[in-house]
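Practice problem 4.
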C-alpha cells in the first residue's frame, strides 16, 4: 500500500541543534510502546548513524557529537508504522526531513547556484517549514549580549526572507530549551509563562513580528521549545561553551511535538483553504462515520471524493503530496476531519470477510496514529497557551 509522504524542510544555522534533535526524536520514538500507536522506522544506515550520535550525546565522558560535515543538505526519512489489532505491521505515512545548513542561505544569496534553486523548490513543495532558532542565542538575548542581535539579524533574518515564500505551516523550533530555562528572569516561571516571555522578546525584531502579524492569514505559525537533553544535563561554562555536567542523564522535552504537529497543522490549513460549500459538503459526509462500519465509511468517503466537492479536496492535497498517493492522502484527510475515532468500530472480529477485516485494520491504525498526533498537540497547547502565534 503506498503511503503519503509529508515533506518538512528544516532551516537552521550551524550548531543550532538539528542533528542532535533528530537523533533524540528518533531514539524516543523508534520502539513500540503502549503509550503510542506507532513507532518510527528508517533505513538501517540512518538508524545506525542516528544511534551513534545519540550514544555520543548521552555519554558524559565523551565530547558532544561532531558538526555535520555533509555538503549542504541531508534528507532524513522516517516511516510512521503502527500495528493493527492482529499485530500486523502497517505503514501509515512517511515523514521526510530535509536539513539545510543556514550557511547555504548566506553563501548563495545571489540566487544563482543550483543548491539555492533546489532549496527554493523544496520550500515550495514543503508541507511544513521548520526554522530552528538556537536557544543559546535566546539566552544571550535576555543577557543583552550583542552576539544575539547579530545572530538574529544575520542568520535568522535571511532564513525568514526565504520562509516568506512558503504557504505551508511554519514552525519555529526553539532548541536547547534547557539552557533558556536557566535564565534568571525566566527560571521561576511556569513553562507557559516562560514561552510567553520568550515570544515577547522575539517580537522585538520587526522581521519576526511582520511574519506573524502581517503575512497573509490562513497559515499556521507556531513556536515549539525543545530540549534534546532535558534539564540539568548541560550548562554554559565561564567561556560561554555548552558543557556536559558529570553524571547527567538525558530526559528530553517536547521532542515528539515537532513531528506530531506536521500532519494536523497541514490538514488544518487545507481545511481552511476550502470554500464554504465544499467544506460543508465534505464534513457532512464524514460525520456519518459514527453509524457506519469502517468499510461502509470508506465507501462513503470514496464516493464523496468522486463528486465535485471531493475533486476540490483532492486538488488541494495533490499539489504537494504527490498524485500517486492521492486517494490515500484524501482518505487520511477525511479521517482527520471526522475527528476522534471510536474504538467500538474497531472490533475487527465481527467483520464478514477477509476484505472487510483488512479495511477495518488499516482504518484502525490510521485513526489511532492521527488521534495520537492530535492528543500530543492538545497537550502541548495546554502547557504552552502562547505557542500558536497564528491559526487559520
Ligand atoms: N544544552 C543543550 N545543548 C544542545 C542541545 N542540542 C544541541 N546542543 C548543543 O549544540 C551542539 C550542536 O548541535 P548539533 O545538533 O550538532 O547542531 P546542528 O544544527 O546539526 O549543526 P551543524 O551540523 O553544524 O549544521 C551540540 O553539540 C550540543 O553541544 C540541547 O537540547 N541542549
Ligand atoms: Mg548537524
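Answer key:
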Amino acid at each position: 500500500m503506498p503511503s503519503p509522504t509529508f515533506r518538512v524542510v528544516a532551516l537552521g544555522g550551524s550548531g543550532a541543534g538539528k542533528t542532535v534533535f533528530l537523533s533524540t526524536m528518533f531514539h524516543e520514538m523508534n520502539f513500540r510502546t503502549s503509550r503510542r500507536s506507532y513507532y518510527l522506522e528508517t533505513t538501517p544506515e540512518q538508524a545506525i548513524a542516528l544511534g551513534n550520535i545519540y550514544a555520543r550525546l548521552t555519554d558524559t565522558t565523551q565530547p558532544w557529537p561532531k558538526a555535520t560535515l555533509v555538503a549542504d543538505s541531508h534528507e532524513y526519512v522516517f516511516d510512521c508504522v503502527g500495528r493493527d489489532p492482529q499485530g500486523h505491521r502497517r505503514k501509515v505515512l512517511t515523514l521526510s526531513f530535509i536539513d539545510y545548513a543556514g550557511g547555504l542561505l548566506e553563501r548563495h544569496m545571489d540566487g544563482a547556484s543550483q543548491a539555492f534553486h533546489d532549496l527554493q523548490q523544496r520550500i515550495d513543495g514543503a508541507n511544513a517549514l521548520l526554522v530552528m532558532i538556537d536557544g543559546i542565542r535566546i539566552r544571550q538575548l535576555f543577557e543583552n549580549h550583542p552576539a544575539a542581535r547579530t545572530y538574529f539579524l544575520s542568520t535568522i533574518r535571511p532564513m525568514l526572507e526565504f520562509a516568506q515564500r512558503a504557504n505551508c505551516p511554519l514552525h519555529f523550533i526553539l532548541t536547547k530549551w534547557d539552557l533558556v530555562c536557566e535564565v534568571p528572569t525566566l527560571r521561576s516561571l511556569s513553562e507557559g509563562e516562560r514561552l510567553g516571555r520568550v515570544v515577547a522578546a522575539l517580537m522585538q525584531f520587526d522581521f519576526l513580528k511582520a511574519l506573524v502579524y502581517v503575512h497573509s492569514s490562513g497559515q499556521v505559525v507556531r513556536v515549539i521549545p525543545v530540549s534534546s537533553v532535558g534539564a540539568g544535563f548541560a550548562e554554559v561554562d565561564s567561556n560561554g561553551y555548552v558543557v556536559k555536567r558529570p553524571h547527567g542523564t538525558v530526559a528530553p522535552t517536547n521532542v515528539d511535538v515537532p513531528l506530531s504537529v506536521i500532519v494536523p497543522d497541514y490538514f488544518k490549513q487545507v481545511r481552511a483553504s476550502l470554500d464554504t460549500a465544499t467544506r460543508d459538503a465534505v464534513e457532512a459526509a464524514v460525520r456519518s462515520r459514527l453509524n457506519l462500519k469502517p468499510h461502509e465509511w470508506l465507501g462513503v468517503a470514496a464516493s464523496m471524493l468522486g463528486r465535485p466537492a471531493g475533486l476540490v479536496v483532492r486538488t488541494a492535497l495533490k499539489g504537494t503530496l504527490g498524485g500517486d498517493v492521492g486517494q490515500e492522502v484524501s482518505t487520511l484527510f477525511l479521517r482527520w476531519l471526522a475527528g476522534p475515532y471510536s474504538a467500538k468500530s474497531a472490533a475487527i472480529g465481527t467483520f464478514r470477510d477477509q476484505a472487510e477485516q483488512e479495511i477495518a485494520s488499516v482504518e484502525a491504525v490510521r485513526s489511532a496514529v492521527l488521534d495520537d498526533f492530535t492528543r500530543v498537540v492538545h497537550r502541548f497547547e495546554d502547557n504552552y497557551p502562547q505557542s500558536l502565534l497564528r491559526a487559520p
